[in-house]
């Protein structure tokens, strides 16, 4: 789809309604039928858009996704609505009333900001992407708050805006980009743009090295439903602060500068910290609250003798500890009649599916096995959710 206009025509919109919810297995039959009365290219575009909407429903919800328009890159790179909503709410709580959204993509963040009552200048240099962002704002009744501009973000004047939000492209022709200076635009430029306004937010990959976070920035790692989604560098808020935010909630854990926890013998319980906690290097804060320690100095598993509720880690009761030995594990699982086996690993080269094939679990019971290191030694910890 290189031109959005045909899909916005009455015929295009009628086709979109006709193909809504089409299953992949039915696409050929649906396309053959519709091409008898409509141009083949328009039918293909409508079916392609229907597929994108189905994919986008995971991020935007079915109701919004079926009203919006997408590009393949737009679906892949757009911010999940829950994460964008969290950021918009934080902007609103800071008193922000206007935001320059640079590299706006298909408009996911602009939509969340507008729904928070914030006026948005949304900028993207790609003509089709900018057109899609504009159409989405209109489709969701937010055109009065979202001004979409097709332009190079490095040439946009952001003076007069309360905040600047930058979401650089982190994918290129060869896939994901790991060097922040290879972002488009580069991280150094984005930092300067975000820091220019009274408030700024810069979306970066969650794997960003901590040593490249500017001293004047606050760093926030965000997970949604246990999956780490992104990191954000905030300017004008709390310089030097590190936080892990878990959605839904939100629940936020602030860094206090604790040293790494001590290594302890494996206790009755094992805690698996949320990914945002691990990425933000705040495992020590969680271990302190649990009165726990690490199973190994290089592994982010916390062990403790007591069960304490925490939103920042998932607790498991450990029933068995074995040196890494597939035969012994298989015998133990057979004895316990374990047929439903969850395999987790940290610090092990063994793939979970590979282990599952070797032990061939059978039976009515379930268990979780952790492939990890304990005090440097390859170990299997067997247990179940506490």
Descriptive overview:
The protein is of the alpha/beta class and 386 residues long. It contains 14 helices and 18 strands. It has helices at 5-8, 10-19, 27-34, 40-60, 62-65, 72-77, 81-93, 108-115, 127-139, 187-196, 275-279, 283-290, 326-336, 352-359, and strands at 98-102, 119-124, 146-150, 163-166, 171-172, 175-176, 199-204, 218-224, 227-235, 242-247, 251-254, 269-273, 293-296, 299-304, 313-323, 338-345, 365-374, 377-385. The strands form 3 sheets. A 9-stranded mixed beta sheet has the order 3-2-1-4-7-9-8-10-11. Strands 13-14-12-15-18-17-16 form a 7-stranded mixed beta sheet. A hairpin with a 2-residue loop joins strand 5 (171-172) and strand 6 (175-176). Helix 2 crosses helix 4 and helix 7 (81-93) packs across helix 8. The chain is globular and about 65 Å long. The mean pLDDT is 94.
Which range best describes the helical content: under 10%, 10-25%, 25-40%, 40-55%, 55-70% or over 70%? 25-40%
Instruction: Tell me, briefly, the overall form.
Output: globular
User: Biggest β-sheet: count, sense, barrel?
Assistant: 9 strands, mixed
Beta percentage is: 25-35%
Write out the strand line-up for the largest beta sheet, numbering strands in chain order: 3-2-1-4-7-9-8-10-11
Q: Kindly provide the radius of gyration, computed on alpha-carbon positions and rounded to a whole number of angstroms.
A: 24 Å
Residue runs with pLDDT of under 50 for 5 or more positions:
none
Number of separate strands:
18
């Amino acid at each position: 789809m290189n031109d959005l206009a045909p899909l916005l025509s009455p015929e295009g919109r009628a086709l979109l309604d006709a193909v809504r919810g089409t299953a992949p297995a039915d696409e050929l039959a649906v396309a053959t039928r519709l091409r008898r009365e409509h141009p083949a290219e328009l039918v293909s575009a409508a079916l392609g858009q229907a597929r994108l909407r189905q994919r986008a429903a995971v991020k935007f919800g079915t109701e919004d996704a079926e009203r919006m328009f997408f590009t393949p890159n737009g679906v892949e790179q757009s911010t999940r609505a829950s994460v964008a909503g969290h950021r918009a709410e934080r902007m609103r709580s800071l008193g922000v009333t206007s935001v320059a959204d640079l590299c706006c993509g298909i408009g996911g963040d602009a939509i969340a900001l507008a729904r928070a009552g914030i006026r948005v200048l949304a900028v993207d240099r790609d003509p089709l992407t900018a057109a899609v962002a504009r159409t989405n704002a209109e489709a969701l009744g937010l055109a009065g708050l979202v001004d979409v501009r097709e332009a190079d973000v490095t040439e946009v004047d952001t003076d007069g805006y309360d905040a600047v939000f930058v979401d650089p492209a982190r994918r290129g022709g060869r896939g994901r980009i790991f060097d922040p200076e290879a972002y488009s635009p580069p991280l150094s430029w984005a930092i300067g743009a975000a820091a220019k306004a009274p408030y700024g937010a810069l979306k970066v990959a969650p794997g960003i090295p901590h040593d490249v976070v500017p001293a004047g920035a606050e760093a926030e790692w965000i997970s949604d439903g246990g999956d780490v989604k992104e990191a954000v560098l905030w300017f004008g808020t709390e310089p030097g602060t590190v936080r892990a935010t878990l959605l839904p909630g939100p629940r936020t854990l602030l860094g206090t500068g604790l040293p790494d926890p001590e290594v302890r013998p494996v206790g009755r319980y094992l805690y698996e910290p949320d990914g945002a906690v691990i990425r933000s290097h705040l495992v020590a804060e969680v271990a302190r609250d649990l009165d726990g320690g690490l199973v190994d100095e290089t592994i982010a598993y916390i062990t403790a003798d007591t069960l304490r509720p925490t939103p920042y880690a998932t607790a498991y009761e450990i029933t068995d500890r074995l040196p890494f030995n597939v035969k012994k594990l298989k015998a133990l699982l057979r004895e316990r009649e374990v047929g439903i086996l969850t395999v987790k690993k940290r610090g092990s080269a063994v793939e979970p599916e590979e282990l599952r094939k070797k032990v061939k679990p059978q039976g009515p019971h379930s268990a979780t096995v952790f492939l990890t290191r304990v005090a440097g030694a390859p170990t299997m910890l067997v247990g179940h959710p506490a």
